[in-house]
Amino acid sequence: MYLSVFASCLLLAAYSLVTRSTISPAVPVTATPEEFKPYAETIPGTQVKFEMVAIPGGTYQMGSPATEPHRPSDEGPQHPVTIRPFWMGKYEVTWDEYDLFAFGTGIEKSPNRTGTTNSEEQQVADAITRPTPPYADPTFGYGRSGHPAISMTHHAAMEYTRWLSAKTGKIYRLPTEAEWEYACRAGSTAAYSFGDDAAKLGEYAWYSANNSSRPHRVGRKKPNAWGLYDMEGNVAEWVLDLYDKDFYKTINPLIPAVGPVLLPTEQEYPYVVRGGGWTDAAADLRCAARRASTDEWSRQDPQLPQSIWWHTDATFVGFRIVRPVEEQENLEGLKSKVKKLE
Fold it and tell me: Distance (Å, rounded) from C-alpha 201 to C-alpha 115?
């Protein structure tokens, strides 16, 4: 039993490492076409499902050209980026999913092979710290079931992905900024995933011109070319990266960067959100648009110190998840080594 618990700890360390490390270009991706396809996952012990879309790898120009209207300087210079294949959430993470982590409701502890309910997977998931109760209703009355989870901090979103990885045995994490833009564009080189005409934005997004003063249930607008919903609008989405307005200037514009990421640290701000939210103008929903988190997002939080889990003033922020192919393969290799120890 000691080695089994030790093995679980190793796997938890692997989940933690992957959510805090860069993507290695040296490991070949060997997923077959049969394996690399869309799928639905049920969170163990629940009836809650989420859908993942297979995103092919490729190379694209990250950022916006200097001629793009409404372009701030932090979107350039444009630079080539190579992205490894990964799966991405078809929708933004909903309260149906996030509630299981944040409040621990609706989870059944199914008996394992020994007839007990305290399985190793459950022990690992339970070891992950969960949010403290929020100061106010985290939904702000905007709706719960089928609606995007909102107002969580970057730290909280990261911890959700660690919890989900422990529950499922698969590597889930936040997308890097480069992965997010690649998936949003879905092959487009225009300002938006559907082209440059902002007049068409209402067909794809909830934003300041049509939001009815609230975020909406996920998947009610048209998807982009790769079948992802609400990449533009509804809620802005956390990505893995720290925000640095000059980060793009550090990347060689002549050689494709493989999976670039500015890794998160222990600092609370600033991190990047992408896609724009229901309160934002059309220009903020462009594929290349970047936004940095600030302490103003928790301005009304009366707690001292302020919550590391909830942003009282960021009702426009949510997230979606990814599952990278090569990181999953690295995990499978670790699992094989662990089995030899048992």
Answer: 54
pLDDT digits (tens, 9 = 90+) for 50-80: 999 999 999 999 999 999 999 999 999 999 9
Residue type, 217: R
Contact predicate 223/252, CB 8 Å: no
Delineate the domains of the chain, giving CATH numbers in brackets. 2-341 (3.90.1580.10)
* 8 Å CB contact between 7 and 338: yes
**What pLDDT digit, counting tens, does each position of 197-207 carry?**
999 999 999 99
For residues 10 and 15, what is the distance between their CA atoms, to the nearest angstrom?
A: 9
The secondary structure of 78-116 as a DSSP string is -EEEEE--EEEESSPPBHHHHHHHHT--S------TTS-
Q: Tell me the whole-structure pTM to 2 decimals.
A: 0.88
Alpha-carbon distance of 34 to 306, in angstroms, equals: 47
Distance of alpha carbon 83 from alpha carbon 61, whole angstroms: 11
